[in-house]
Each structure stands twice: as structure tokens, then as C-alpha cells.
Amino acid sequence: MKTILTIxxxxxxxxxxxxxxxxxxxxxxxxxxxDHSLKLNGAGIxxxxxxxxxxxxxxxxxxxxxxxxxxxxxxxxxxxxxxxSGMVSSDNMSEAIAEGFxxxxxxxxxxxxxxxxxxxxxxxxxxxxxxxxxxLFYVPGKGVxxxxxxxxxxxxxxxxxxxALFGIWLSNDPVDxxxxxxxxxx
Length: 186
Known about the structure:
alpha+beta, Chalcone isomerase, 33% helix, globular
């Protein structure tokens, strides 16, 4: 009886990570980043004007609302972006990502410019259409892996690049403050 009670209490105290549905997109409860299993930390919708551009889910090893800790940690993390608007094209997504890097780094992109250019090129390789899924996973010792619809496009090394990339959504000057709140589960 003690064992059953202990298991029940432990289950109640363990954070529950479950899938969510936003804008008709089901955001999975967990994803794999290399050998790492990551759990959904939070999710939100990227909006611009009255357009809902994409649904994003942030994945971490353990739930956290500390954006700075998530940005700076040398541990696995991922973000999943599912395009939900035909207004998103390869050109405007590339421009938005480049602008996000400027905001994330406070305009100091020069030390990372070659990596940023390599990353932005992922969005220009083929047309972006509604329903496309981009997954960006940082795997320590390997770098940021970019996947489109499950296909690996590039791997870009460096914790510095990871910090700038995830700063797009989590920095003190994110691309969308409401989206940041959703990704942090608040």
C-alpha cells in the first residue's frame, strides 16, 4: 500500500507535458533531438497584424519559464514552427529571420554573419507553403540542426549561434512578446 501511495504522489508531483492544439495545429508533447527526448515547454502563435503566420512549440529537457537560462544553457533545446498562413513565403520568412537575429543580438550580427547567412539560406532552398514544419534543434557538441518536414537541411555549430537563434523568440526583445509568453508556458 505504501508503494502505491508513493507512486501516486510522485505522479501527481511530476509536471505533465501534453500536446496542445492552437489554430488547428496539434503541437506534439515531445520530440527527439538527436539522442535527446525533449518535452513541450510551451506553445504560441506568431501573429503579425491580423495574420496568424505560424504555430510554435518550444521543447526543453525540463519545464522552465527562465528565458535567459534557456538561451544560455549548453543543453538540448528545440523549437518547432508550423506554417499556418499562405502569407508566409521563402522571401519574407528569410527577411523575418534575419531581422530576428538583429533584434536578438542587439544589432551585433557581424561575428555570426556567415552562420546567419547559412541558416537563412534554409528558407530559400524551396518554396514555403502552408503546412510546412521547420524544426530547429540545438544538440550540444553538434550544433543547431535545421529540419524541414523531417528532412535535415543543415547543422550549424556553436553555442554562440544557438544563443542568437533562440534569442529570436526568447530574448528581452523577441519578435513577438505574446509568443514568448506562450513558449515559456505563461
